Amino acid sequence: MVPRTDALTREVVDLIGTVVARYHEEYEEAAAKHSLTGAQAKVLALLSREAMPMRRIAQQLKCEPSNVTGIVDRLEARGLAERRPDPDDRRVKLAAATHEGTATAEHLRESLGFAREPLADLSPAERTTLRDLLRRMLGESAP
Amino acid sequence: MVPRTDALTREVVDLIGTVVARYHEEYEEAAAKHSLTGAQAKVLALLSREAMPMRRIAQQLKCEPSNVTGIVDRLEARGLAERRPDPDDRRVKLAAATHEGTATAEHLRESLGFAREPLADLSPAERTTLRDLLRRMLGESAP
DNA sequence: CCTCGATATTTCATGTTGTCAAGCAACCGG
DNA sequence: CCGGTTGCTTGACAACATGAAATATCGAGG
Description:
Largest interface: A-B, 43 and 43 residues
Number of helices of chain A: 6
Oligomer: homodimer
Helix content of chain A: 55-70%
Largest sheet of chain A: 3 strands, antiparallel
Order of helices and strands of chain A: HHEHHEEHH
């Protein structure tokens, strides 16, 4: 049993909190550079990989589908996404990134500095260690 | 130079993204259990440590001071926080957690499972390693 | 085939968070 | 005491988020 007041655990949690905060900052900042909000950037990143029904976007974002309607509306209004009918189910609308949307998502990924800057100080061996620790932390050790 | 497409770096970034997502989920969930939003919970956590001027809350949250007004308004309306005059500067209002606010913040901290659950699988030595790597990643090696 | 319940999306009402500009009160240096 | 700055609030507005109700479609059972 890990006592809640364990100084080491507390410190790690604090550090993770800092990582989370910084990640968000950079994400919002990168999105803003393309005149996107964080939510719009997230959806666009999803759609740039594959088209998907509104309902699935909501699941990924962990929010209500009615919310997604508005976000996709705004992406669509700017020509970054579009709605297509699903040939298999006429209830479903498939949201997809347009050409321009895919390009924007690409730029976004590139300008997301968090990938390189903070990790640059770590050697490959350290990065491997970090990867393994994060994996275990997230419980991906199961198979 | 670290190539952007480095598979290891990419994987670590993905893992961090997952950590960030999970952290947020749990934070919002824990806040919701006390009928608080994430922003309210964050401010309450700050205030439970020490009273501070509105302006400083805004700095910590990285948002406009006018935004903080509303959040503290809602906390105040529920008796979790209060505004006190600053004896040294009559322009300043010190926001402080009430008794009940402090108690709520305490419960919040406890119900924030992220502290223990995911780290439980790591040995103390591994946690130390993780701490050191995170520290270096965040550039705290500077002294 | 037809109806009934379930599903996918949207619309509407409402609340919270966030920005920005404008306003007021209080501080401070000359 | 005056003028500029600082701290906070207010107002208008956009985005995000939820929940309830409306619409259209699907699918299974009668």
